[in-house]
Amino acid sequence: MRVVSGGPILVEGPVEVTLEDGTVVRSDRFMVALCACRRSGRYPFCDTSHRRRVR
Description:
The chain has 55 residues and is mainly beta. The chain has one domain (2-52). Helix content is 0%, strand content 33%. It is built from no helices and 5 strands. The termini are far apart.
């Protein structure tokens, strides 16, 4: 696992993530970017929305 400052959490896949409501989402990719900022339209997966953040 690697945390990118201001960006996603990179995890070696495949991964299974259980959301707060109990929904389970899965990715079979060899490297998965998980959203750490909650701006992603594909949450819990990163869609690079953090790059558009106004500082």
